[in-house]
Request: fold
Amino acid sequence: MHDLIRTIVAYVLILGLLVFVHEMGHFLAARWRGVKVDVFSIGFGPALCRWHDRWGTEWRLSAIPLGGYVKPHGFEGPDDATDEQKAAWIPGKTFHDKPVLSRAIVIVAGPLFNFGFAILLFALCFTLAGKPEMRYDVEPDGAAALAGMKAGDVVTHVDGLGVFNIADLQHQIAPRAGQKVMLTVMRDGHEITMPAMVGSAPGAAPGSAPVGRLGVMAMAVPGKPMSVGSAFVAGIHETWTVSIETLQGVWQILSGHRSARELGGTIRIAQMSGQVAKYGFVSIISFMALLSVNLGLINLFPIPILDGGRLTFYTLEAIKGRPLSRRAQEIGYQAGFALIAGLFLFSTFNDLSNLGLFRWLAPHSG
Reply:
């Protein structure tokens, strides 16, 4: 019960803070571009508490802590607004009346704040605890050692597919027991390619398939705390690296080089939130930075209903000199909603599968 409470509390606090930062980007950009903000809500559903600031924005803390939103004044536009909404519009303060550049700035500010927040969080980690370094070792007579890999070598590719970290390496090797793979390793600044015959170990469950083993071990070695300036520069670099690795991972899934079962959702995030909370403040900050990068990237995907979808519409509007037709936008939003809903359901299925729910249900059904 203690672990469950810690997981729930950590998840709500971490997600709540990241959503707050994202929506604060929209809020401040709207204020900068002269748009009144009607509502700033953390969470969805019924408001647990609410108050108004001197600019007329209603701030809410809502019951369902799975996101949040900012509602700019006149966001719905003349074609979608009711007569009551139109009557309440304040001339010069509505979102839809602003030039396309101003509207794009308001939308893109949310993801940009997530990237900026990630930089600050990484910099804080590096200032407090330094930047961890990974040291790799190989098991004597293991598959990697037999292939010619040495201690200190870092595996960068398996069969040409990029390897992001030790967990990713294990994930790629696990289903390849007894198979021959081509390893690319970095040794003293040079890339070396070598063939390796993946070893095998018994599966976790009785009768399950053997698990591939390479015989590579990694240990995180704490770095030295950095100065504020150096940590900030390292934070920028780390944010860029995580962004590129995340996009590469998404592309590998879309191109079929990685399994879509790697997609995780809210349950996995909650589970990981509880796990990192065990290891202290720096681990929580590092995890938040990773999530902040992912939140920024996801929102920039050109999918209608996400920020990236709206930016795509605004780009087409700037090129054509007029907005897309209402029908085209409606179709786009419906397709975007269906895609996001499908991804949510699929990722939730993956999360429940990884927790072993369906394996547990199988012998208890029928």
Remarks:
- The longest strand covers residues 37-52.
- The chain is about 50% helix and 20% strand.
- The longest helix spans residues 2-32.
- Residues 2-33+98-129+282-364 form one domain.
